Amino acid sequence: MKKGAVSKVDYDNYDTSKMIKTSKPLKLEDLGLRLPNDPPTQINIWTDLEGLVDDQLNLQVKMQFKHHHQFMLNSGLNKCSSVIDLGTGNGTFLHELAKAHPKISFIGVDNQAHMISKTKCVQTDNVKCLIGDVNNPQAIQGIGNVDGVLMRYILLHMNDTSKALSNLHKVLKKNTRLWIIDLDLEHYVCNPPHEAFELIKRLVKRFCDEHGRDSNVGSKLITILKKAGFRSIEQKIEPLNTETVDIAMLQKFIIQEVIVYRAALENAVTDEEFEKIKTFIDELPNSGTSLNYGVTLVSSIK
User: Fold this and answer.
1) What's the CA gap between 263 and 40, in Å, rounded?
2) Pick the CATH number of 9-301 from 3.40.50.620, 3.40.1160.10, 3.40.50.150, 3.90.400.10
3) Are the C-beta atoms of residues 130 and 108 closer than 8 Å to each other?
4) What is the number of other CB atoms lying within 10 angstroms of the CB of residue 54?
5) DSSP label of 111
6) What is the tens place of the pLDDT at every residue in 8-50?
7) pLDDT tens, position by position, 216-233
8) 288: left (phi over 0), alpha (psi -120 to 50) or beta
9) Taking the complete model, does pTM exceed 0.70, yes or no?
10) Angle of helix 221-228 versus helix 161-171 axis, rounded to 10
11) Bridge-partner residues for 181, per DSSP?
12) Are the beta carbons of 238 and 64 closer than 8 angstroms?
């Protein structure tokens, strides 16, 4: 292995099941994770960090499914007979939805073939998963008959959010429901302010900037949706913070985000800066710090 290469075994051999079930505050060392000292210049986070990304997606669902599910219920999920999940990832969230709603047909779409292969490992009768790219207008032409469209954490993977949502509006039938759940850096808040938290926020913004994405698109969604022609738009901010989420889960979620972003960016975080982030996360349970991870939830209707 070349110097600086990221070995999947560093992450794949870590069993997270015991950590997930406990509310005991953890230190970084307890997570069994390390930051690559010399990340390669070119890295595909979906494949080179596959084990870590997969664990992060599963952890995300463990922390957020209940709230996201309730949000969808409050905005018409039970009125749907078919729902498509654009950017389904490994399908964990979709399969949880399908189990909760056996009378609804669900379709998962993702442009990563290896992610779609993971979704097929879970057998759920009312779920079908396909390879497709939401950035390709032709790929969404065939989804006009569904009653609902879910887009979770996909905006930062879209080349042009405004154009994509406008194209989506054109192909959907009247009264189709749309749920968007995604990052909103305007609601990344730390009280009292902390240098390490600003480093984390800067890391996320740089990842977006270097990949040509708007890190503040979450705060612009209402305007974008109105312009595209959607109506009955409602927006809520996710209560994903130190008061509502198991602190051990939140610690693990944040450090894994840092690892993924730093591995994907060259010279993004120095060793000294990472030590500051590590200390900040280690001390989070007893520091009295109030931290809110910025997530926006938006519902609308065609």
Assistant:
1) 7
2) 3.40.50.150
3) yes
4) 19
5) S
6) 323 233 333 333 333 344 343 443 434 334 444 445 655 667 7
7) 888 889 999 999 999 999
8) left
9) yes
10) 40
11) 152, 297
12) yes
